[in-house]
Design brief:
The complex is a heterodimer of chains A (277) and B (163).
Chain A lengths: L1 H5 L6 H21 L5 H18 L6 H15 L12 E5 L6 E4 L3 E5 H6 L3 H16 L9 H11 L10 H24 L3 H18 L4 H13 L7 H4 L4 H9 L8 H13 L3
Parallel strand pairs in A: 1-3
Antiparallel strand pairs in A: 2-3
Chain B lengths: L2 H23 L2 E4 L3 E5 L8 E6 L3 E8 L2 E6 L2 E6 L3 E2 L10 H5 L7 H6 L6 H10 L5 H9 L4 H10 L6
The chains are: A mainly alpha (277), B alpha+beta (163).
Chain lengths: 277, 163
């Protein structure tokens, strides 16, 4: 290095060291600037997406059902590829006849009352939740934030001024945060995920169901019911989670070979029915 | 100086260097969840031994599949890999524990970036712009927690697999 830089005339050995230090600091800063969204940041995006969803759909206030959905969801989430999120998984029911489910980044999962009505047993409920848990683990929601937006955010985050509440930089960061919420919300509610993302979430859901002891077959059965129902109102699941014949075929092809214990499925169906769903 | 004294001094120096090398290579993880627990055995259904918080340093003893066996404040136990990261977590305000317990690897740049990004303050400013959004209900949803014991019973009664 000394040899190469000696051509620059005034660069001494000392200067080389200083220069190298400066370069390595720049590289280090660049590496930091290209970082992914952290679990904590994902959590804050997810909270705001959840708040927006709750302004569109009210919460279904049924304590027994909410508890039950949470236990089923936790039983699956702990067998997922991402059993931990910044503040854990939370499950809630939205009070609407629309048939849908939403995975907010960071771990809050909503299922609509309309969706719950279409579900016929605990294993099907677990299948729907497993699919949504997979979207969170795969970061499908958070990855819908435009790359240019996140790049701009990182530039601002790299400035000292961004830390000062009330500074123009901080205001810009809040604006980018707001735009990020829009990106995720549109994906969840309007556009839906891509087919590849849905296929990946289905495949992961089958694995999580098998690991947790639920019947993976429940996913295929429920998708078939969704497809035959053939309708979903207001940006419903057929828009955001299209139950196409191709998707059902893929799920059937990837079905784990183990067969569930029918007696245990019946036992779980019994406790599902006792919830008065 | 006698020969035995020289030998003793040499041996002491060697041990000191050895200890330094071992300490320098101790693998440290940081908790990236808001809160979590270290468990007796490496599975989620195992008994919790100690609570840990975001940013707490955990010394790795061994790795067993998706789990780490760790030491935290003289307590040993297991924590799942998805709850930790192999880097120093930037803690808002850079508390004395960050600078006072051997966190010399935290650079000035990292300290400068501490607490930045999409955080509580950004969310609060967003809330001010959108007072119509229902964050109270979000808080209520997050406040609901399933207890380990009840979840264990739910899993057992449903013939499900323990995590």
């Amino acid at each position: 290095m000394v040899f190469l830089l000696s051509g620059c005339g005034s660069v001494s050995v000392y200067d080389v060291g200083k220069h190298f230090d400066m370069v390595s600091k720049t590289v280090s800063a660049a590496q930091k600037a290209s970082r992914d969204i952290t679990d904590e940041e994902e959590y804050y995006v997810g909270r705001s997406v959840a708040a927006r969803l709750l302004s569109k759909y009210p919460l279904y206030r049924n304590q027994a059902l909410t508890e039950y959905v949470n236990y089923v969801g936790q039983a699956v989430a702990l067998h997922s590829d991402k059993p931990n999120t910044f503040r854990g998984y939370h499950f809630a029911v939205l009070d609407t006849d629309e048939v849908n489910a939403f995975a907010c980044p960071g771990g809050t999962i909503f299922i609509t009352r309309g969706m719950v009505k279409m579900i016929q047993n605990e294993d099907e409920l677990a299948a729907v939740l497993a699919h949504e848990i997979a979207h969170i683990g795969n970061r499908d929601g958070i990855s819908s934030i435009k790359q240019s937006r996140w790049t701009e955010a990182l530039t601002i985050i790299g400035t000292t001024a961004a830390k000062n509440y009330g500074s123009p930089e901080f205001a810009s960061l809040v604006g980018i945060f707001e735009g990020s919420i829009d990106d995720v919300f549109k994906t969840l509610v309007v556009n839906g995920y891509g087919q590849a993302q849905e296929a990946r979430a289905d495949a992961a859901a089958l694995t999580y169901l098998a690991r947790s002891g639920y019947s993976p077959e429940a996913l295929r059965i429920f998708l078939e019911r969704l497809a035959s129902a053939g309708k979903a109102s207001g940006g419903g699941i057929l828009t955001t989670h299209p139950a196409t014949a191709e998707r059902i075929e893929s799920v059937a092809a990837a079905m784990p070979s183990e067969r569930p214990d029918r007696a245990l499925v019946a036992k779980r169906t019994s406790r599902f029915q006792k919830k008065g769903i | 100086m006698s020969r035995s004294l020289i030998h003793t001094a040499f041996a002491a120096s060697f041990v000191a260097v050895l200890l330094f090398v071992v300490a320098a290579h101790a693998r440290t993880l940081s908790v990236i969840k808001e809160t979590d627990v270290i468990r007796l055995d490496c599975r989620f259904s195992s008994q919790p031994k100690a609570k840990v918080k975001y940013g707490n340093p955990l010394e790795v003893i061994t790795q067993e599949g998706d789990w780490y066996k760790v030491r935290y404040q003289k307590i040993t136990g297991c924590i799942h890999q998805s709850a930790v990261e192999e880097k120093q977590v930037n803690i808002k305000g850079v508390s004395s524990s960050v600078t006072g317990k051997g966190y010399t690897s935290v650079s000035k740049e990292e300290i400068g970036l501490a607490g930045k990004g999409f955080n509580k303050e950004v969310e609060e400013a967003f809330q001010e712009r959108h007072p119509d959004l229902d964050f109270e209900t979000v808080d209520r949803i997050e406040a609901f927690r399933t207890s380990d014991e009840t979840l264990r019973k739910f899993i057992k009664n449903g013939g499900l697999n323990e995590p």
